[in-house]
Amino acid sequence: MRAQLDPSWRASRIKRIRYELYTPQNPYKAQVLQSGDANVLRASFFNAKLPVRISIHGWTGKSTSCSNAAIKDAYLAAGKFNVIMLDWSAISMDISYGRISRQLHEIATNLLEFTQFLHLVSGVPYESIYLVGHSAGAHIAGLAGKQLRPERYGAIYALDPAGLVQLPLGEDKRLAPNDAIYTESIHTDIALLGNPSTKLTQAAFFVNWGLGQPHCPNATAAEFDFACDHFAALYYFAESLRQPRAFGATQCRRCNGRGLFSNSRILLDEWDCGCTNADKTGECPMTVFMGGEPAVPKNGTFYLSTRSKPQPFGYGETVRIKRAGPAKYLHSSFLSNKFVGNLLMKWHNSA
């Protein structure tokens, strides 16, 4: 309501978006870049000869969270990059996800203008810019990609893209397959905070069927199952940057009469992710790897499973077929925006 009465208030919030640069020269202490300030850019360690990777957090997130640090550290361990963290925490901490969703387009426009500034001042090509978005950040990436056309970013990685509000939206208002040269999504919590759609990106990976990540604990006061599941996509992606062959996956096929998820009601009668000998061996041949650097274009819907403990999570070239984990909170009426927001706040504070 306040933003509607006073437009300058909303503008001031958008201006509080920060772009924090990390490079091999400053892997731990960020340099803050400002769209339109060429002097600050030239005085920084930004190197137009290196690829640009922009990480975008989600609802209740911030650039300094452990999960974002994992992405940044993985890129810098994998090679020489300009890693930029888009921090929109001045907006994302709003307890109302509905209110947040109405501002994603403005944040995406800010991101668009920032990347245009980088391109014009430094000459860095758009195709060498990848956007890595978690949850709502995935849709920010997609909305920025739409506005950049006819140019396109090199890739968008959508890490458990949000589905709370975006589920019924058309392609013009959410992430879509052609928002970058290549788009890939990693789904880990489709039951609540994530998005079960296979139509958001060119390649969609459903890790452990997108339900009940095996390393996530039972719900406790400090860490809730669904929050752990939702953030698992970031840690899987970070591992794929360090080990590009960590997550072998098998392609799913459209079918009739069988569901993607064992003993669940999600995406019934759409996909079969098994293989001929899966019932006997519990394994299927891998067809592609998830994630990695640089992006390797794939197309389709894919399944893979992970270990219950990290180091590593991935099984490498082996695809082990497992039963879908429980989604105890699926279709729970008590999970209001306010309740979920409070739980996420607690999770972030404990992380």
UniProtKB/TrEMBL annotation:
One of its GO terms (biological process) is lipid catabolic process. Residues 9-266 form the Lipase domain. SUPFAM superfamilies: alpha/beta-Hydrolases. It holds the Pfam family Lipase. The keyword Zinc-finger does not apply. GO terms for cellular component: extracellular space. This is Phospholipase A1 member A. The gene is PLA1A.
